[in-house]
């Protein structure tokens, strides 16, 4: 449904006041627009120092969402973003989130920002999702320097959050700012959602996806930063999202738990749980239900080749996760296929049993085991549910269990993939080409695991862009988290370039969704009106819609000679062939 | 070691001041002693109304130890016992117990009473264990009347605790009181331990068994009330105790838990836990380790016959426990053999996994499953441990598991049985015969599950008497808990009779354990000295060691006409043939 590929050419608009016809044909404006983009990309190259400094400010905030003590820091970081967005004429709302953690009532509630920049009803609307929180990090975990102090070394930027939400947020803020500084308006309408509970499963945000439906009505496409580079040199554009089905398997032996040595005659649900779970998997912990495994779309020859080029070291992987052995003794591509392309089953735990430290005499009589099956295209929740239910009930019958079985789907989200020739995918390819001068790799067989994107897909149902940010990570709390500085700068440019490319796609009339949407006046219309009043030679300064002079107003900028990043940026940088082709000033700097 | 059967005849005493030779030979005093016992039994028959009233007072106390709110009630009940014991010249100590429950610091700590009545170094010392707490009970659970209000109906006494600790405590207090009222001294030395945390596993008491070693030094035998009647008419004297071995089976896949859909390549400990647990049991949930099952002592022909006479209804059993089906479709005796005479395995839960309500994405990487194997004679912890460890490690190897296995014994206590011709067992048989006029059934194959007795056995290591109180119960929180009034009165008499019988056993000199024990003066010696001063015709009233006039001092006794129990006691009572043979006034009353 959300796949927008059928929208090219755009459908005829039937609303009486439609402004779509006012839009200049794409062919005529494309040269002008491309010139505008080049100006922005050059501007980005000239402000990299300031961008790194801003990243440094964000990294310094200990936005550890899993720790109640750092809730104020999360709110501070969110306020920083809010201030930046408001300066850029975004209309910003925040909504409170009560995590219900059992802490003092004086602890501040967390918030999520919903921001909106409306340029024109004739333009496409991009929703950017980003976040500011990070997993916990301490030097003693193995960090070579303070995780909350940005450090540059050998062309890499080290710091907690640089390769995840914080980094992406800074990129988007600067791409937007550069565009506004150069052209006083954005080429598209932009909405931003910024949260600080990403690492906590975005609980509160899910709720607002349903409550604030009107915010999403005019969104054309949602973009997520995606750690999908398969090696140092290959941004990979992923066109698929993993889903999941979390099951509750309840086994009930009686009405109440028994105490002491009361067993012998009663069927014990804990033992039945173990028997049923055991029946679900084989000795390699693979799901035994063949119908579910058969639903998986096979990899293409090209995707196999892509896996072969992946920068993956089995040793590093085990080191990072602190494990001794992998389930498979296979070559790199086969291992990565198991990890990225296949479904698997994970058991989380058992509710209602004795789970505290120490010993117990409790005989639990109703327990619920919880497990998740990761879904990859084309596994569908409904079918997987039916197969799991069938399997468990027939095994329960076969094993003649004396406890009563009930299964529940506790949480689920379908896997999802979209075609490579979707118009937004094509725009993204062009956006990446504008920066990298080569075509990104495309895949839907190598599945992206980004639950928040899947949740947006489920609740908001709009097309999705997974904009490649940096390399795939094996776990969220990686030690000595880093991103190549060049990769970071290129992402700022890719963000700007994506806005440009989306502006080249014809927008559709949304009057059927929002009353007289086409009649709305955005910043573009106001600017146009002001320009026509002042005449073509009107002084620019008077008509820039009160957008503050951003570079001057940023009082926090430190003296360049004191900046440790400045030193790094003057150091020789690992040059890559492809990077040297990048236009603008980046070659001079790195 | 604690088996005392080799003590007859008593060993020669080598201490210089030994008073053992002062003791009159058993043959000469037995007639006198038997007359004394008859006086006490008659006195008990004459005070049954007051005994029931006291039971009513105790039942009214909501001593629910599992609920923090009722901690003050537990302390109040303990104070009632303390007052009673102090009136009877017991020397009472209390020790505080910190359960470490996360409640307000203002909540009172629980206590355990250690009381001591020392009559003479020439007498045996009996330690009585009893308790006052009960499982929770509410009318809405299915009680026909308020569980904390004693109700008499059809010859049964209903109320929470009547068939457990509260009932037994009242019986012992009154048996002692009647003996003191009749003879101003007890025939033996008595020590009593009263606790209010029995239902919570007697945590604090276990600790004091080790700390207060000196309290237990001169104890000859410990008596526990035992719900071991196999039907309405057969008190069963059990000579065996079940033990247990609680294991922790830790499976470690990595150093830290993973989050999200991180599985696929790592071995997941939760799945391995289920596979190992499944390998431990068969489809009937019976332990697969045959060596452990083979250790069980077979039942004698007589014990089989005993099981056949048991009053057990499969329907009632399932009803009480709220279960639908039993693990076996067998006849009554075979079912009871499985329940009472066999070993079994119970799984309590898994530590360190996700055990809260709701769904999770957690992938636990180190978990510990906990299970207990109930031990019956002659299963020994050490051997069972070795077999379980062998089995698990070889299965772990056989299944080629990628996680690391470690096993722990979290808690254990050996099973234990003692011969029927043990001198304390023989005394107990005679004590029961004195009241019931027939020999109780004896068994060690039908195993008593009384963890507190097993713990005393483990920590204190003294001979044990399991004095049959009322019928076996299937669970501790039985609805409409009751005891036949006649059975209750007979237990008071059995307690008195047991004291008499133990006084007939020659005591051993304890000077090797306690310095100059034989030189200690007890109440008997003081009484003797006073008597000899006053001459044989001395006025009794002046020499009764300040023991208060118990019946008069009890101000709380209500008007007999208002007492609902009085009405019940005047009602016709279900007469049993054997009961009619009971001497004294009970026939007039029931």
From TrEMBL, chains A, B:
Keyword list, A-Z = Hydrolase, Metal-binding, Protease
Region (Disordered) residue ranges read 571-590
Stored Pfam families? Peptidase_M20
Q: Which GO terms describe its molecular function?
A: metal ion binding; peptidase activity
Do the record's keywords include Cytoplasm? Answer: no
Biological process according to GO: proteolysis
The EC designation for this entry is 3.-.-.-
Q: Which residues form a coiled coil?
A: none
Q: Which InterPro entries match?
A: Cyt/Met_Dipeptidase, Peptidase_M20
Q: Identify this protein by name.
A: Uncharacterized protein
Q: Which organism is it from?
A: Drosophila willistoni (Fruit fly)
Gene that codes for this? Dwil\GK15097
């Amino acid at each position: 449904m959300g796949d927008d590929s059928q929208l090219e050419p755009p459908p005829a608009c039937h609303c009486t006041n439609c402004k779509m016809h006012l839009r200049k044909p794409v062919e005529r404006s494309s040269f002008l627009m491309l010139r505008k983009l080049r100006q922005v990309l050059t501007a980005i190259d000239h402000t990299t120092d300031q961008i790194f400094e801003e990243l440094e400010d964000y990294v310094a905030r200990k936005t550890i969402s899993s720790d109640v003590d750092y809730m104020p820091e999360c709110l501070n970081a969110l306020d920083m973003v809010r201030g930046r967005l408001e300066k850029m004429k975004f209309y910003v709302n925040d909504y409170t989130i009560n995590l219900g953690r059992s802490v003092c009532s004086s602890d501040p509630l967390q918030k999520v920002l919903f921001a909106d920049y409306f340029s024109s009803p004739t333009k496409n609307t991009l929703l950017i999702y980003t976040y500011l929180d990070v997993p916990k990090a301490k030097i003693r975990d193995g960090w070579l320097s303070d995780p909350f102090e940005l450090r540059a070394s050998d062309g890499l930027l080290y710091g907690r959050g640089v390769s995840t939400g914080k980094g992406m947020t800074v990129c988007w803020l600067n791409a937007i700012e550069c565009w506004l500084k150069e052209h006083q308006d954005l080429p598209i309408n932009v909405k931003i959602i910024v949260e600080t509970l990403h690492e906590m499963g975005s609980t509160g945000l899910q709720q607002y996806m349903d409550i604030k439906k009107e915010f999403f009505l005019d969104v054309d496409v949602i973009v997520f930063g995606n750690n999908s580079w398969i090696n140092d040199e290959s941004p990979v554009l992923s066109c698929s999202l993993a889903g999941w089905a979390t099951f509750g398997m309840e086994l009930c032996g009686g009405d109440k738990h028994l105490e002491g040595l009361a067993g012998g005659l009663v069927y014990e649900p804990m033992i039945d749980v173990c028997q049923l779970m055991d029946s679900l998997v084989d000795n390699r912990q693979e799901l035994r239900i063949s119908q579910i495994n058969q639903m998986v779309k096979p990899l293409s020859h090209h995707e196999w080749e892509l896996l072969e080029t992946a920068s993956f070291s089995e040793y590093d992987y085990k080191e990072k996760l602190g494990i001794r052995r992998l389930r498979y003794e296979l070559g790199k591509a086969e291992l990565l296929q198991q990890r990225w392309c296949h479904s698997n089953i994970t058991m989380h735990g058992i509710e209602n049993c004795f789970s505290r430290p120490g010993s117990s005499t409790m005989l639990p009589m109703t327990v619920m085991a919880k497990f998740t099956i990761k879904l990859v295209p084309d596994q569908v929740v409904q079918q997987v549910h039916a197969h799991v239910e069938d399997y468990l009930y027939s095994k329960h019958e076969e094993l003649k269990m004396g406890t009563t079985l009930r299964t529940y789907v506790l949480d689920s989200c379908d896997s999802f993939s979209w075609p490579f020739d979707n118009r937004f995918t094509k725009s993204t390819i062009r956006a990446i080409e504008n920066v990298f001068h080569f075509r990104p790799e495309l895949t839907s067989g190598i599945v992206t695991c980004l639950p928040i994107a899947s949740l947006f897909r489920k609740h908001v149902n709009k097309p999705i862009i997974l904009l490649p940010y940096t390399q795939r990570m094996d776990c969220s709390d990686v030690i000595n988290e880093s991103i190549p500085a060049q990769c970071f700068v290129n992402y700022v440019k890719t963000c700007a370039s994506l806005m440009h490319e989306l502006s080249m796609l014809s927008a559709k009339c949304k009057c059927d969704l929002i009353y007289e949407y086409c009649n709305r006046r955005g910043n573009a219309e106001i600017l146009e009106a002001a320009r026509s009043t002042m005449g073509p030679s009107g002084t620019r300064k008077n008509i820039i819609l009160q957008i503050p002079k951003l570079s001057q107003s940023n009082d926090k900028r430190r003296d360049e000679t004191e900046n440790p990043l400045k030193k790094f940026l003057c150091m020789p940088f690992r040059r890559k062939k492809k990077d040297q082709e990048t236009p603008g000033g980046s070659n001079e700097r790195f």
